[in-house]
Design a protein that fits this description.
Largest sheet of chain A: 5 strands, parallel
Radius of gyration of chain A: 14 Å
Helix content of chain B: 55-70%
CATH superfamily of chain A: Response regulator
Number of helices of chain A: 6
Oligomer: heterodimer
Largest interface: A-B, 24 and 31 residues
Strand order of the largest sheet of chain A: 2-1-3-4-5
Number of strands of chain A: 5
Largest sheet of chain B: 5 strands, antiparallel
Low-confidence stretches of chain A: 1-10
CATH class of chain A: Alpha Beta
Structural class of chain B: alpha+beta
Shape of chain B: rod-shaped
Strand content of chain B: 5-15%
Number of domains of chain B: 5
Low-confidence stretches of chain B: 1-42, 715-720
Distance between the termini of chain A: 26 Å
Order of helices and strands of chain A: HEHEHEHEHEH
Mean pLDDT of chain B: 81
Number of helices of chain B: 20
Helix content of chain A: 40-55%
Strand order of the largest sheet of chain B: 6-5-9-8-7
Chain lengths: ~140, ~725
């Protein structure tokens, strides 16, 4: 089942960043089942290298990663690709962390586990807002 | 004066073997004997501290000397004034030996008037009387001084040594030397018609005989007058009475009734009775028997009866003296030997009773097996414990039959090793009682060998330690439960991380399942390979989630520890996996420096995980206030000298400066919410595995290391 926003994102995949390969793989598979194109990353450095030359519209970001914290990824992403939307997908239900993440521009702060429909809806909602904000 | 004895124990120990002049209190096996000076004073005849006793002793000495002299006069060959036995000097010697030297002047003072009275009655000139008193006193003083010098105090003739000294000094040296003086006095005073050497010989022989018959009699009976009374059975009294009657009858028949032409062989007739007296009644019996036979022999000889009257008076006197001396010397030695042996037996019996009493109080089983004599002994506690009948003969076989079947071979081997190597054995084992009850014992024993190197005896002791073993078991169970509760507490602290570890695979499963469902529902073509991949991933994640749950369950399970071959490398991997989320959340990196081919250890895997988790959690907490970029843990492992070492190094606040070891104390914690049990429990676990856990403070953190004995590899001998 394709989403209405899919045509816009053709050629501009959704980036996934999570240090857990199982989670990364299964989430990517879920998005692909909904018609999205995904670009998965296991470590933040690879992702930051990628965004130097590519500008994904959306990043699904894990917070707790051994090599670099999610907040730091957000900071650096804002410098190199400020228009990329961020949905935080984390197990840490921490209000301070949530607040800091929102301040750094996160569109959503979702606590794992997230129902697949809810995740897809949130992605659509975020990207829908992006489309609405796009100049005609 | 028995009441003055300060006996401070239940039994006075009268071995008589303490050194001369010893003033301090003697202790033997924890039993205090009476103070020796007090005891000695109580046995002395004259004591300056008691005027009544002083006067009584003086009167006794006076009377003794006086009647002794009368007896001496009575025992002369009438009408010739040849004395066979001269008792006054021997009575004086006995009095000196029974009194302390500081009162000897009083003894002489009491004897002097008796001497004067006796001699003046015999119309002896005053000068001669005085000279004889001087020579008599010299003899007694010389003998007493020598005897006192060479024997213990008080002088008792119940030891071979004392008898030898007495015979040498009292019966020989004293009369021998003093008789030179005496003979000189006689010559100077022109008294009698005998030559110097005749006087000397007669005096030596009569005084020597008196010394060996009269003095021992007085010492034996007066010397023990103040000793603690021992109950004498009626049978013994009857035996003594029968002996006395037979002796009196025989003495009368032999030395008064028989004619001089009687066969000389009959002189041996008293010998069995004398031996009977010495062996059965010791010194007192022997001296009394000698005195009785002596009196009969001398009386008979001096009054014309018995076998000694055929010869001239001086020869007869000499024969009587030789006869009596020959029976007196060996009999005194025999009596002393008998008393020594009896005393040794008493001491041994008393010691055995004390040991049995102590062993019984301490619930110790004692036993001996005498292989040479084929005899065995075990105290009552031991027989009750092992279930042996009171007279049941012990042997290695009957002993092993009581040992628990599972321990029997081990005990037998330990005994064999001790026997072959002539060493002690000590072994803990179970005793299987007839009632089916099992008791835990610790036995220690040794084989003794005789002078030829042959095994002669097995001595052993066993202690029932069932209560201690039960207490140790209970303590171990409590420690295990405490450790388990500690693990649960650690799990509580790690709940968030563990939930994350579980959530990750569950979330992946959910996403994969949803994706698969979407692929199918959307009609999109999906190739079987991709679909199989989805299912494989679901399966893998499900196993991962199961593994996390299994790990948690194992970690907090309740049950006996199970030790097996454990790779500490594997334990490190397990623990890092379990703590992964916590490490990430705390922004702490972990660096592993693992030794290649680390030997395994014999341990309980869960307890090893607990030790490592406690150390890592401790390190994480030590770095809470440290900047995230400096939060680092180095986990290293290596092995040397048969030990495997695992170290956890952090870059935190370090250890307490005043006493770093405090971190291992129970309830030591720097956290407000901490119980302070983690490191203490970790140390107790490591020590229970035969290892050690140490902490060292570094300039920029701390390092905790634990070492455990490496398990010998397959090719390595395990016997050793």
């Amino acid at each position: 089942m394709s989403r209405s926003v899919t045509p816009y994102l053709n050629g501009s995949p959704i980036a996934l960043l999570d240090d857990d390969s199982s989670v990364l793989k299964s989430t990517g598979r879920l998005l692909m089942s909904a018609g999205w194109t995904v670009e998965p990353f296991l470590d933040p450095q690879s992702f930051l290298s990628y965004v130097r030359t590519n500008h994904p519209r959306l990043l699904l970001l894990d917070m707790s990663m051994p090599l670099m914290h999610g907040l730091e990824v957000q900071e650096r992403l804002r410098e190199v690709s400020p228009r990329t939307q961020v949905i935080v997908l984390t197990a840490k239900d921490d209000p301070i962390l949530r607040s800091r993440s929102i301040k750094l521009g996160a569109a959503r702060y979702l606590i794992k586990p997230v129902e697949d429909e809810e995740l897809l809806s949130e992605i659509e909602a975020v990207l829908g807002n992006v489309l609405k904000a796009q100049p005609a | 004066m028995a009441g003055e004895e300060s006996i401070t124990c239940r039994h006075a120990i009268t071995t008589g073997s303490w050194p001369r002049g010893m003033e301090e209190t003697r202790e033997e096996n924890g039993w205090r004997a009476a103070s020796t000076p007090q005891l000695r004073r109580s046995r002395e005849f004259v004591s300056l501290e008691n005027p009544g006793r002083l006067i009584g002793a003086a009167i006794l000495i006076f009377l003794g000397y006086f009647f002794g002299a009368q007896l001496g006069f009575a025992l002369t060959f009438k009408p010739h004034p040849v004395s066979v036995l001269w008792p006054p000097n021997s009575i004086l010697l006995a009095a000196l030996l029974l009194t302390p030297p500081r009162t000897w002047w009083l003894v002489l003072l009491a004897a002097f008037p008796a001497h004067c009275l006796v001699e003046l009655q015999s119309h002896v000139p005053a000068g001669m009387v005085f000279c004889w008193f001087i020579s008599n006193s010299c003899e007694a003083l010389l003998s007493a001084a020598l005897i006192r010098y060479f024997t213990e105090e008080p002088t008792r003739l119940n030891r071979l040594h004392n008898v030898a000294v007495f015979c040498c000094c009292g019966a020989f040296v004293g009369p021998f030397l003093s008789s030179f003086l005496d003979a000189a006095f006689v010559a100077l005073n022109h008294w009698g018609g005998d030559t110097y050497w005749e006087v000397w010989r007669i005096r030596v022989s009569s005084n020597a005989l008196a010394a060996i018959t009269i003095t021992p009699l007085i010492l034996a009976w007066a010397g023990t007058a103040n000793a603690p009374r021992q109950a004498t059975s009626r049978v013994v009294l009857l035996e003594a009475g029968v002996l006395a009657m037979i002796l009196l009858a025989l003495g009368f028949i032999l030395f008064d009734w028989l004619t001089p032409d009687t066969d000389v062989a009959l002189l041996y007739a008293p010998l069995p009775l004398l031996l009977w007296a010495a062996i059965r009644f010791g010194t007192r019996g022997a001296t009394a028997a000698i005195a009785t036979i002596g009196l009969f022999a001398v009386w008979g000889a001096t009054h014309g009866h018995g076998p000694f009257v055929e010869h001239p008076a001086r020869e007869s006197a000499l024969y009587v003296q030789i006869f009596l001396s020959l029976i007196s010397f060996p009999l005194l030695f025999l009596a002393a030997l008998t008393e020594e042996r009896k005393e040794t037996e008493d001491v041994l019996r008393e010691r055995e009773e004390r040991i049995s009493l102590a062993a019984g109080t301490a619930h110790l089983a004692l036993w001996t097996i005498d292989f040479k004599r084929g005899r065995s002994w075990m105290n009552g506690v031991g027989r009750d414990l092992f279930g042996f009948a009171p007279n049941e003969q012990l042997s290695r076989e009957v002993f092993l039959a009581r040992v628990h079947p599972e321990d029997r071979e081990r005990v037998s081997d330990a005994i064999d090793r001790a026997r072959n190597a002539s060493q002690h054995f000590e072994i803990e084992y179970r005793l299987q009682r007839e009632s089916g009850e099992t008791r835990w014992l610790i036995s220690r024993g040794r084989y003794t060998r005789n002078s030829q190197g042959q095994i002669s005896e097995l001595l052993g002791v066993a202690l029932d330690v069932t209560r201690q073993v039960s207490a140790n078991l209970e303590l171990r169970q409590q420690q295990q439960e405490l450790a388990r509760l500690s693990r649960i507490a650690v799990m509580g602290e790690l709940t968030a991380s563990l939930a994350h570890e579980l959530n990750q695979p569950l979330a992946a499963i959910a996403s994969n399942a949803a994706a698969g469902k979407r692929f199918l529902a959307g009609g999109a073509s999906i190739d079987p390979t991709s679909f199989r991949e989805i299912l494989d991933d679901i399966f893998t994640d499900a196993r991962r989630a199961g593994s996390v749950i299994h790990g948690i369950r194992q970690f907090i399970r309740k049950g006996e520890e199970t030790r097996c071959s454990v790779s500490l490398d594997g334990v490190i991997e397990d623990v890092l996996q379990l703590l992964h989320s916590d490490l990430v959340n705390r922004a702490t990196s972990v660096q592993k420096q693992i030794s290649v081919s680390l030997p395994a250890v014999q341990a309980d895997r869960v307890q090893m995980q607990q030790v490592l988790i406690n150390l890592i959690v401790n390190s994480l907490e030590a770095m809470q206030e440290v900047a995230p970029e400096r939060r680092r843990i180095i986990i290293s492992s290596d092995h040397s000298n048969g030990l495997v070492r695992v170290a956890v190094r952090d870059f935190g606040v370090g250890l307490p400066e005043d006493n770093p070891e405090n971190v291992f104390n129970h309830f030591f914690s720097t956290k407000a919410e901490g119980m302070g049990m983690g490191l203490a429990i970790a140390r107790s676990i490591v020590e229970a595995h035969g290892g050690e856990l140490t902490a060292e403070s570094l300039s920029d953190g701390s390092r905790f290391s634990f070492r455990l004995p490496a398990k010998p590899s397959v090719g390595q001998s395990t016997s050793g």
